C-alpha cells in the first residue's frame, strides 16, 4: 500500500505516454532494478535501525550529512505531489457541495462525465482550484501543529481498502472499455512537437488508438522511481518481522505485487479512460484520471472521497516525519518545544508545494520529474555506492 497507493491516479496517463508494450517492459525492468538495490540496502544496513547510521559507518560524518540531506529532499517529493492531489481531489468535492447548497451557481446545462472537473489554471476571481490549494495548505499547517498523530495512523490503516477501491474503479473502466469499444492499434507514436499541447493532439474522429511504443516514456520512468521506493523506509518494517528468515522473500513478493498493480492498472487504464462514449471524441487521458469525470458522476465521487482521506492521512504522517528530519538535522533533536519554530519549519515545508500546486497543476509531469530525481538518489545511487564500498 505504501508503494502503490494514490500513485495509481497517474499510471494510466503514464502508460498512454510510454505505449502499452514499452510501458510493461519499463515497469518490469524498474521492478528488477529496484528490488536488486533494495537487497543492497538490506545487506549493508545489517542491524542498523536507520540508513543514515549505515552511511555514517560507511562514509563517516559526510555520509550522515549526505544521507540526511538526501532523505529530506526525497521526502519533499511526496509532499509536493500529495498536496497537489489533495487539492485536485478536494476541489470537485467542495464544488459539488457548494453547488448543492446554492453557494455557487450550478451549470446551466446538464453535466456529463466528459466535462471533467473544469479548469485547474490559476484563478482567484471566483471559487476555484487555486483557492482549494490554499484551503489544503491551511489545513495541513493546522494538522502539523498536532502532537498526537494517532488518528492519522488509524486512518492510514484503511489505506489497503482505499487502494482496492482505486484499483477496482480502474479495473471496471478498463473491462468496460474492452467489452464495448473497438480500438485501433499502432506500433509507434512520436513525441509531440515542442510547444504543442498534448491535450490538443488529435488522431481523427472514430475509434481510439492504442500505441505499443511512445516517446513520452520518461514520465513513466519518473513515476516508477517514486512508486518502487521503499528502501530506507523498509528497515524498521523488516526489523520488526516475526520471521526474519522470510524477509527477502516477503520484500520480493511486495515488489512483485507492486509490479502487477502498476502493470494491470496501466494497461486497463489506457483502455478504460479513452472511451468516446464516456469522454467524447479524441479524448486524451489526463494526468490525474479522476479529473476526467464530472462532479456528479457518483462512482468518481466515491473514489475521490476515499482518495482524499488516504491522501490526508498519508500526507500528515509524511509531513510529521519530514519536520522531525529537518529538526534532527538542524538541532540534533526531532522535536521542539517552541511553537514558533514548529510553525516556521511547517511553513517552510509547505509553501513550495502550495506555489507549485497553484502555478503548475500538472501532477503527472511533476511526478515524472521529481520521481526521477528522487528515485535516482535513493533507489540507484546511494544503495549501490554503499554496497560497493
Summarize the SSE layout with pairings.
Elements: H1 11-18, H2 20-45, H3 51-59, H4 61-100, H5 129-144, H6 150-156, H7 159-180, E1 184-189, E2 209-214, H8 218-227, H9 234-239, H10 247-272, H11 276-279, H12 298-331, H13 339-359, H14 363-388
Parallel strand pairs: 1-2
Describe the overall structure.
By secondary structure, the chain is mainly α. The chain is built from 14 helices and 2 strands, in the order αααααααββααααααα. The chain has helices spanning 11-18, 20-45, 51-59, 61-100, 129-144, 150-156, 159-180, 218-227, 234-239, 247-272, 276-279, 298-331, 339-359, 363-388; strands spanning 184-189, 209-214. A two-stranded parallel ribbon has the order 1-2. Helix 4 (61-100) packs antiparallel against helix 14 and helix 6 (150-156) crosses helix 12. The two termini are 32 Å apart.
Labels describing this entry:
two-stranded parallel sheet; 14 helices; 389 residues; 3% strand
Instruction: State the major sheet.
Output: 2 strands, parallel
Helix content: 55-70%
The fraction of residues in strands falls at under 5%
Overall 3D form: globular
Instruction: Write down how many β-strands occur, each being a DSSP E stretch of 2 or more residues.
Output: 2
Report the total helices. 14
Radius of gyration: 21 Å
Please give the alpha-carbon distance between the first and last residues: 32 Å
**Arrangement of strands in the largest sheet:** 1-2
Name the helix and strand elements from N-terminus to C-terminus, one letter apiece. Answer: HHHHHHHEEHHHHHHH
Class from secondary-structure proportions: mainly alpha
Based on the structure, what is the oligomeric state of the protein chains? single chain
Mean pLDDT: 86
Query: What are the segments in which pLDDT stays under 50 over at least 5 consecutive residues?
Result: 195-204
Amino acid at each position: 500500500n505504501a508503494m502503490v497507493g494514490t500513485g495509481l491516479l497517474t499510471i494510466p496517463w503514464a502508460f498512454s505516454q510510454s505505449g502499452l508494450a514499452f510501458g510493461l517492459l519499463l515497469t518490469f525492468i524498474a521492478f528488477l532494478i529496484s528490488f536488486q538495490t533494495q537487497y543492497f540496502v538490506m545487506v549493508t544496513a545489517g542491524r542498523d535501525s536507520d540508513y543514515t547510521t549505515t552511511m555514517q559507518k560507511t562514509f563517516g560524518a559526510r555520509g550522515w550529512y549526505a544521507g540526511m540531506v538526501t532523505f529530506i529532499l526525497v521526502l519533499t517529493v511526496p509532499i509536493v505531489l500529495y498536496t497537489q492531489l489533495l487539492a485536485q481531489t478536494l476541489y470537485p468535492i467542495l464544488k459539488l457541495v457548494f453547488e448543492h447548497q446554492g453557494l455557487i451557481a450550478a451549470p446551466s446545462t446538464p453535466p456529463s462525465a466528459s466535462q471533467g472537473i473544469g479548469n485547474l489554471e490559476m484563478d482567484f476571481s471566483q471559487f476555484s482550484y487555486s483557492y482549494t490549494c490554499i484551503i489544503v495548505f491551511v489545513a495541513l499547517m493546522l494538522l502539523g501543529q498536532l502532537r498526537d498523530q494517532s488518528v492519522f495512523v488509524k486512518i492510514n490503516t484503511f489505506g489497503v481498502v482505499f487502494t482496492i477501491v482505486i484499483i477496482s474503479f480502474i479495473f471496471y473502466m478498463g473491462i468496460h472499455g474492452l467489452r464495448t469499444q473497438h480500438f485501433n492499434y499502432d506500433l509507434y507514436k512520436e513525441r509531440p512537437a515542442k510547444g504543442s499541447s498534448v491535450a490538443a493532439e488529435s488522431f481523427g474522429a472514430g475509434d481510439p488508438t492504442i500505441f505499443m511504443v511512445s516517446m513520452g516514456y520518461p514520465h513513466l520512468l519518473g513515476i516508477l522511481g517514486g512508486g518502487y521506493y521503499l528502501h530506507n523506509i523498509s528497515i524498521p518494517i523488516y526489523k520488526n518481522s516475526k520471521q526474519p528468515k522470510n524477509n527477502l522473500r516477503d520484500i520480493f513478493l511486495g515488489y512483485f505485487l507492486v509490479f502487477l498493480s502498476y502493470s494491470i492498472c496501466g494497461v486497463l487504464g489506457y483502455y478504460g479512460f479513452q472511451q468516446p462514449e464516456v469522454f467524447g471524441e479524441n479524448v486524451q487521458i489526463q494526468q490525474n484520471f479522476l479529473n476526467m469525470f464530472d462532479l456528479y458522476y457518483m462512482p468518481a465521487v466515491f473514489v475521490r472521497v476515499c482518495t482524499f482521506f488516504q491522501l490526508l492521512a498519508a500526507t500528515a504522517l509524511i509531513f510529521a516525519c519530514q519536520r522531525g528530519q529537518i529538526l534532527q538535522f538542524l538541532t540534533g533533536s526531532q522535536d521542539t518545544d517552541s511553537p514558533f519554530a514548529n510553525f516556521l519549519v511547517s511553513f517552510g515545508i509547505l509553501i513550495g508545494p502550495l506555489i507549485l500546486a497553484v502555478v503548475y497543476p500538472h501532477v503527472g509531469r511533476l511526478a515524472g520529474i521529481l520521481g526521477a530525481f528522487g528515485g535516482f538518489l535513493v533507489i540507484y545511487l546511494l544503495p549501490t555506492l554503499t554496497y560497493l564500498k
